[in-house]
Amino acid sequence: MTDLFWLIPFPPALSALVLILFGRVLSKRWVTIQACGAVLVSFGLSLLSFGGLLGASAEGLPLIKTLFPWIRAGAFRADFAFQFDPLSAVMVLVVTGVGFLIHVYSVGYMSHDKGTTRFFSYMNLFMFAMLILVLASNMVLMFVGWEGVGLCSYLLIGFWFEKKSAADAGKKAFIVNRIGDAGFLLGLLFLLTVVGTSDFTAISGAVQSGAIGAGLATLIAILLFIGATGKSAQIPLYIWLPDAMEGPTPVSALIHAATMVTAGVYMVARLNPLFSLSVPAGNVVAIIGAATAVFAATMALTQNDIKRVLAYSTISQLGYMFLGCGVGAYAAGIFHLATHAFFKSLLFLSAGSVIHALSGEQDMRKMGGLKKYLPRTYKPFLVGAIAISGVPFLSGFFSKDAILTSAFAQGRYILWGLGLAGAIMTAFYMFRLIFLTFHGEERLTPEAKLHLHESPKVMTVPLAILAVFSVIAGYVGLPAIFGERADLFRRFLEPVIKPAGEGHLSLGTEGLLILASVAAAFLGIVIAYWFYLRNPRVPQTLAARFPGVYKLLTNKYFVDEAVGAVIIRPLLRGSELVYTGFDLKVIDGALNGSAAAAGFFGKVLSVFQTGFVKDYAVAFLLGVAVILGVLLF
Amino acid sequence: MTVPASYFFILSIVLFVLGIVAFFVKRDLISQFMAVEVMLNSANLAFLALAKAAAFADAQAVVFFIITVAAAEASIGLAIVLVIFRRKKSIRTADLDSMKG
Amino acid sequence: MMIIVFFALAVICTGSVLGMIISRNQGTSALLLVLAFASLGGLFGLLGAGFLAVVQVIIYAGAIMVLFIFVIMMINLREGIVPEKRTWTIVLSCAMALVILGEIVFAARGVAPEAPPALAGVSPTELGRLLFTKYLYPFEITSVLILAALVGAIVLVKKREP
Predict the structure, then answer these.
(1) Which spans in chain B are helix H?
(2) pLDDT tens across A36-73, in order?
(3) What is the largest CA-CA distance in chain A?
(4) pLDDT value at C114 more than 70
(5) What is the CATH number of the domain that holds C65?
(6) Between chains, do B37 and C126 touch, taking CB under 8 Å as contact?
(7) Domain ranges, residue C54
(8) Which end of chain A, N or C, is surrounded by fewer C-beta atoms within 10 Å?
(9) Alpha-carbon gap: A586 to the closest alpha carbon of chain B (Å)
(10) Is the pLDDT of residue C121 over 70?
């Protein structure tokens, strides 16, 4: 059953091709059925492949299927080959499962849009690229997928391209991504110099045999991580993700919450032998992850746009995943990736449902008291918020706890502390969002109130399904309190992620840590409750008391403005100067000049063309005299 | 006493140069054409002198061909002159400059 | 004895060509040229090419020059030729011609005149044999050439239908 895994990317690819070529003649109904159906087929294949892995031993892993030899340049080979192992299984299940639900949701959300066919063709194309990224057996092919998802992200962010802000956001996303990709490529090239190929199996082998020195490993790992910061929106390349909210909400859910942005985490986890080899690189990853987690959370505290809050939340949660990987707990990082996929996409889709209900309103200051009007949206939303806050018994609690515990166990107390602070803020801003949107006094505009309606089933059913998963998904990765064997998730990933020398904690310490996380979650919720439901004037007073801090947070620390002034404007000025000074004067000048010279010479020579045969004969004669002279003497 | 071949060569060159001069001195097409014929004949003379000097009979075949081709060329050339005259009513070379520029 | 004949013929030839240059009248030039070609035929005979001498007189002096005279008479120019305005071409070309003459004479100066071989002329038989074996292709092609010239001349001169 697992043998069919290589087929997984192709249903969406085929669907995308059909939609691109023939979409214009297909009915909207057929387009949506085909697009969702393709992803469903992929999901089915993923399930089958996963099932096949459950019973199998770790001997034959990873399964590799070479579709065709792709690059053969001298000694360098990169084949178009897929590989399948527990890590791939987790990724494809998440991508296709959540992807399918989001596709279904989009049928309802995008029903009024006139570009539905284009939308679904891009979505299918994205699925194809993401699946290639996840299934690739070598880094070069993975890079193809990496770029592909970047392209689809650009296309989908700027889907409503007539709106300038949307088009600009798409451009920004692509360009910032590209900067990260430079790091990725450099890391890949260094890797190639020492390993010779970019196959993951070869890389693991090289690490084990000691072929890669620690210094080189650090360099490669850091360069690759720079690529990951671009794709997964960490400091310093996170600036594109908030702007990416210009795209339709399903896009934000799929690409900027569940799948594309997790590609960086996946890459680090896939290359865990390499990252484990280099302690400094691991530190860089962990520190940037923790810093981003806190930094982004602070910005989410004061945002008024419902989607922006979720965007910063995503950046923050991605920071947690990198924190986990950085301290060696790759399994915990992937675990959080999976649970985050469920509850973050749930949150985005629910937000989309609210926006849809309010005919496009996204500002939370114009919401409030929607609980009684949108019950089928409110309940899943609440579940998602509880999950992300780390309240016990839901999935977020288990995955976040796994990361924080690992950090503490390694003696990284500062990182643990940062993570805990971030957890408090996470709970706070999520419940701030809930309270502002669904509770309290109604601040709706009259027209919005007029058209207020619950979303159709095609949108609310996926929400419910995701809510269920947000609750139960955590139980595959229970903490050590319940016994060593209870962490099914980590054991499943063992063939790929060798357990690092994580420190072991006594049961008592672990129990205390869990209590701390729970306390953090509840602290955040209580503060939010107090600020927004009990004493609604407190936030304003605080803002008035600390205007500087408030302005700093609301304006995202002015990072975008700083980048614009320090980097973008000089670049633009510089290129303008080059254009006028060099391009126009020198290159155009040379070109026009040579043309003018040719014309000039032509005019000079035409003086000799008098039209009289005798003149031509004179020239003839001259030539004869000269040639004779040369020949005879 | 037979004539040395070199005398013939000298005569040939003199005739050739005279032909050149004639070409440039004359101002109408037909006379220039006649100058060309003179030049051709001087070449014929040179070939025959060569045939005698080197006992090389092939040169006489060449002369045969030259005469034939000259005949063909003369007929066509004169036909062209006639057509030009019909068009421009003049055969002065000074009037024929439509290829100017 | 031959030398005298040679010089006589050479003088006639050169003289008539000079006359042709000097004469203003095309008809006179043509007739002088006939004389030149005839004397040239004699010179051919002196070189042992009897067949070619006769061919020269018949074809060149006889047919080609007559063609020239026909055309001259058809064109029937009455007015005189306007003197050439651009004399520099004449001067330059004469200079060039002299230069060429000088070059050749100078180059040939060092060559000692060799002993003339026996005056064994080439009989028509030999010439014919050459033409029909070694130079067969040029022979045939020349005949096609003449045909082409014939057709061409007729087509060129045909009067357009009014």
Answers:
(1) 5-25, 29-54, 58-88
(2) 999 999 999 988 888 887 776 666 677 888 888 888 88
(3) 117
(4) no
(5) 1.20.120.1200
(6) no
(7) 1-78
(8) C
(9) 33
(10) no
Co-location of C3 and C61 in the same domain: yes
> Among A335-339, A503-507, B94-98, which stretch is predicted with the lowest mean pLDDT?
A503-507
Q: Is residue C102 part of a domain?
A: no
Q: Is any Cβ of chain B less than 8 angstroms from the Cβ of C16? A: no
Measured distance CA(A137)–CA(A199) in Å, rounded: 6
CB A136 within 8 A of CB A148: no
Interface of A with C in 108-147 (CB under 8 A): none
Residue that terminates a domain, selected from C78, C112, C147: C78
pLDDT at residue A481, as a whole number: 61
Q: How confident is the model at residue A206 (pLDDT cuts 50, 70, 90)?
A: confident
B63/C contact by beta carbon, under 8 A: yes
- Looking at this protein, which amino acid is placed at residue A184? F
Q: Residues A315, A418: contact at Cβ < 8 Å?
A: no
- Predicted confidence (pLDDT) per residue in C81-107, tens digit: 555 566 677 777 778 777 777 777 777
- Assess whether C5 and C74 both reside in one domain: yes
Q: Tell whether C135 is covered by a domain.
A: yes
Percent of chain B residues topping a pLDDT of 90: 43
CB A268 within 8 A of CB A285: yes
Phi, psi of A110 (to 5 degrees): -95, 15
Residue spans of the domains in chain B: they are 5-91
CB atoms within 10 A of CB C98: 14
* Chain A residue numbers touching B100 (CB-CB < 8 A): 609-611
Question: Which pLDDT value is given to residue B42?
Answer: 95
Residues of B with Cβ-Cβ distance to A612 under 8 angstroms: 93-94, 96-97
B5-91 belongs to which CATH class? mainly alpha
Picking from C78, C104, C136, the residue at the C-terminal end of a domain is: C78
Position A303 confidence tier, pLDDT thresholds 50, 70, 90 = confident
The continuous run of DSSP H or E covering B6 comes out as helix B5-25
Residue type, A474: G
- The count of domains in chain C is 2
pTM value?
0.69
Which residues of chain A make contact with B101, given a CB cutoff of 8 A? 606, 609, 611
Confidence of residue A525 (pLDDT cuts 50, 70, 90): confident
Rounded average pLDDT over C41-46: 91
DSSP string computed for C131-149: HHHTTHHHHHHHHHHHHHH
- How many CB contacts within 8 angstroms connect chain B with chain C? 210
Query: Do the domain assignments include residue C106?
Result: no
C103 DSSP β-pair partners: none
Does a structural domain hold residue C132? yes
pLDDT (mean) for A151-163: 90
Distance CA A217, CA A286 (A): 16
Question: Å from A607 to nearest chain C CA?
Answer: 16
Asked if residue A448 has pLDDT above 80, the reply is no
Token duo for residue A219: 């360099």
ipTM surpasses cut 0.90: no
